[in-house]
Amino acid sequence: MMQKILNSKNFVACLLAAATGMTLYFRVPFPEENVFLKVMALRSPSIFYFVKYSYTLFLFSTPYIGYSIALSGVYIFTLKAGRRIRAGRLSLFPDPRKRDKLFLVLGEIHNPRKQVPAENPQWLVIPERGLFTGIAILGAIGTGKTSCCMYPYADQILGYRAGEKDKRIGGLVLEVKGDFCHRVREILERHGRAEDYIEISLNSEYRYNPLHNDLDAYALAYNIASLLNNLFGRGKEPFWQQAYTNLVKFIILLHKVAFDYVTLFDVYECAIDPATLEKKINEAERRLTETDSVLVSEEEYLKHPRELEPFKFRLDEESKSYVSTLTPGLAAVLKDKAIQWEAENVGGRKPVSPEKKEQLEAVKRWFNHDWRRIEPKLRTSIVEGISVFLSLFDDNPSVKRTFCPPAQCYDPQANADFKYGKPLPSFRWLIENGKVCALNFPIGMNAGLAKAIGVMMKLDFERAVLNRVPEMEANRDRHFREVLFMCDEYQHFATVGESEPTGDEKFFSLSRQPKCIPIVATQSISSLKSALPGETWRTLLQTFRTKIFLALSDDFSARTASELCGREDKLKVSYNLSESGHDARVSLLTGKALSHKSNITASKSYNTQVDFRFDMKTFTELRNAQSVTIAYDGTNPMPPMFCYLKPYFNDTNKSYFRQLADGEL
After folding, report:
1. Above 60 in pLDDT, residue 517?
2. CA-CA distance, 275 to 86, in Å (whole number)?
3. What 3-state DSSP class applies to 543?
4. Which end of the chain has less Cβ packing within 10 Å, N or C?
5. In angstroms, what is the C-alpha Rg of the chain?
6. pLDDT, greater one: 173 or 78
7. Rounded distance, CA 599 to CA 77, Å?
């Protein structure tokens, strides 16, 4: 009440002055009976009336000046010094399950530029169109990235329309500590979506083969080579990457042609053992030729009886042709002697496509005229370049069982009872059915393997998401659910392509159209910089339009965050003190200048300077659950502001400053 009165102190002073003036007007009226005033009225009426009306005016103006000074003093020295703004009450936090539209509440906003409470705080909300442009959370260890951002955001997104099977959100969750997956499971169970949780771990029932998809051999080999570059760095000599990419490509092609199935262990086995590779090439040749028969006309057969007799031809009475099984030796004789023949499929087996036969011939040419001609020492170096990674799927039986399952695992009849484990459905199926796939492979078990599996799952997921674009374009009337990509400690899984066609920066720049919501958390900008080559971290970071900066503990991250928040004109105050003297002389006692006449001048000036909105000190001194947020709503960027986050273990409807006062943070 007192604050409102003092805020309107001029109006109050007018009321008090009016009351005082009216009282004085009747209590102390103008003394018209005074002899001197009567003489003045007779001699100079104009001066008399001037004095009279001035007297009346002063009855009101003088109290007004006094009251204004008194109230201003109270306002400055009493209320202003002890003024303390109480944090206002927030509007109720919107329940994710009852939201009609998809949006994400990042936290609460008070004064956007000062760390003080506000009487009317608001929620910082990112609408659906802004979520598709990505959210990056950056903060040092222990600042609350997971508890204040990842958990609450996952709860809001996974809880959106949880009761509608056709509209609930699915996606991929990656982490390195092993606890975030359990929290995601609890969130899904709390929202009645326990059946949507699918976990990949060494103890789970699911099996995941990174090579069992519709990509061609070169694309799979290229992905492995790119992964090796991110794991071990890119060498200065491109020959080695090209060599082991070529090796992996032809081994994968061989298995796809002959067996329609390949695992990373198969690639490793053939790479380190030339005898096994040659054996599988022969097996592939047998598989592709034994299903066909050769038909040679009787006239053509009689022209070359001696050459064809060893192959045990028999006469078919119906076609009047000689028939025999097609073998590599027979195929060579037919080609050498230019014998006219026809192929026929027998036994009801599926005929082998000519394309597969041509691919097998390509594998044989590579093996005989390329791989075998390389010097043994050089060949060993090439193999070592790839085996250091592939051996991870051989030395650990649990890893081999989970990520290199046998082909029978994907056969519905042979694996009807899931004795080989449940095959992980394709990410396309998982996305369209609202499933949440989580990789629970703590990096403490095997850092290199955890990153490799996480990156391969991420690449499969990204490809499945981007493949939605043509389907969404062809079916505009159909509802396509949103997709969530959430990654904690993102620096362990970040990959960039630079000049290559793969890379997270390329996916995130295209993920808006297929309705993907990327949310990643990393310790600092320095973590991304050290994990990625060159200046590629800049390209990757700019794909996240919304950035949440918690406390940063290194100067590079703090300086970069300050630069990202931009600069603005700020009013700067400067003070100047000067002393001057007149008739100065030198003292014979001290030897210093003295003056009996001197003065001191103090001046205060204002000027505008371009300075950072938030300096480095601001980012390094943020408390837990405090952040500087650069938000984007999908249409217009919001200016950087202080945002106060909501830890999952506290009441979301209670203001940050009240939680801080109660010791809940």
Report:
1. yes
2. 79
3. coil
4. N
5. 41
6. 173
7. 30
